[in-house]
Amino acid sequence: MKMNICQLLAIIREYQGGRGYRGYRRAKKYLGTIGHFGSVGTAKRGGFTLIELIIYIGITSVVVVSLMNVMITVLETRERTESISEVQQSMRAVMDRIAVTYIDAQEVSIGASDFESVVGSLYLIMSGSTRNPTIFSLVDGVIKVKEGGGNAQQISANTIVIDKFHLHRVDEGVVEVQLHAFDKASDELGEREDMSLETTFTLRQ
Predict the structure, then answer these.
(1) Higher local confidence (pLDDT), 11 or 176
(2) What separation, in Å, do the N-terminal and C-terminal C-alpha atoms of the chain show?
(3) What is the C-alpha to C-alpha distance for residues 205 and 194, in angstroms, rounded to an integer?
(4) Within 10 Å of residue 69's Cβ, how many Cβ atoms?
(5) Over pLDDT 70: what percentage of the chain?
(6) Which residue from 29, 38, 90, 95 lies 20 to 30 Å from 105 (Cα-Cα)?
């Protein structure tokens, strides 16, 4: 049975007024005395104090912030890895296309090609009229190839910017090609990832 403060005080007054053993028993029961009526028992707490609640919220906040920082770091690392991989794959695709064409070429036109330039161009003499000449060039951040009388076709991905297509003549029929590129998205975020790739091509004898 639950009692309010007024009822409890009435019981105490009943005991103090000498109304007998009944008043003593009621007072002793609800005041929780041990051994004698003068010692009041300690009641069990049913909840958190304000300080405990503040400490709990503080610890929880620290844990949540730490977990969020870990998640952000993981996501940033994954995004960075994907950006690097995409740039590398696109540059390799360009190099592979040049390699396949270079092997089939009869010769490199030294006069028409642009060597030792950041924005170079490779002019290849092919056997078939539909592919002769084949020209690889850097235009507005992308590598394009033009075969015969056809239109120039982009062979690098739109998600990357190639800012260097450097050609170096090593020997007769041997050309060294260097590409330098970066991912557009990471560059816009101020976290530019620059990648370089260098390959040497030799004409088939």
Answers:
(1) 176
(2) 107
(3) 36
(4) 10
(5) 76
(6) 90
**Distances 35 to 15, 24, 32, 146 between C-alpha atoms, Å:** 17, 13, 10, 105
CA–CA gap between residue 123 and residue 114 (Å, rounded): 8
Are 126 and 106 in contact by the 8 Å Cβ rule? The answer is yes
pLDDT tier for residue 95 given thresholds of 50, 70 and 90:
very high
Secondary structure class of 51 (helix, strand, coil): helix
Q: Which DSSP symbol is given to 57?
A: H
* 81 or 202, which is more confident: 202
Is residue 41 classed exposed, middle or buried when 0-12, 13-18 and 19+ CB atoms within 10 A define those classes? exposed
Task: Report the phi/psi class of residue 165: left, alpha or beta, with left for phi > 0 and alpha for psi in -120 to 50.
Answer: beta
Report yes or no: 148 and 132 within 8 Å, Cβ to Cβ: yes
Nearest 10 degrees: CA dihedral of 49, 52, 57, 58? 140
As a residue count, the chain comes to 205
Around Cβ 149, how many Cβ atoms within 10 Å? 8
User: In the predicted model, is pLDDT for residue 39 greater than 60?
Assistant: no
pLDDT of residue 174: 93
